[in-house]
Amino acid sequence: MNYLLNTKILGFCPWCGAPIIKAKTRDGRTLYEHEEKKTDCSFVLFQNAYVFGNPVRFTDAQVETLLRGESIALRLVTKAGKPFDAWVSLDPKPRTFRGKQYPRYKFNGYVR
Predict the structure, then answer these.
(1) Sheet of 44-46: strands edge to edge?
(2) Is the pTM above the cut of 0.70?
(3) pLDDT at site 14
């Protein structure tokens, strides 16, 4: 069971359209998940996540933008260690890994 941090709906699930809210796990991690647990959809977005191998801490405003299907600007680092700014959005199709579905990110170009 997760603990609600905010009952404000931040947006709607890109996979099923259900309302998404902010919550906290028992171990203290913040996440964004369905308001109702009775859905068959497994969408969840952690506040501290990895985007293209880079650790990212999403703000509520960034999550709202992502859930609207829009891009956000993130500072990322290449494998060679060179930093760059990129436009990133949520892919509407989930990524499947070991039988579970996870959010997938799309690179939408460099920030100029």
Answers:
(1) 3-12, 19-24, 30-34, 44-46
(2) yes
(3) 94
Please give the full DSSP string across the chain, using - where no structure is assigned. Answer: --EEEEEEEEEE-TTT--EEEEEE-TTS-EEEEES-TT-S---EEESEEEETTEEEE--HHHHHHHHTT--EEEEEE-TTS-EEEEEEEEEEEEEEETTEEEEEEEEEEE--
Do residues 30 and 22 touch, judged by C-beta distance below 8 A?
yes
Range of the domain at 67: 3-110
pLDDT given for residue 6 in this prediction: 63
**How many distinct structural domains can be found in the chain?**
1
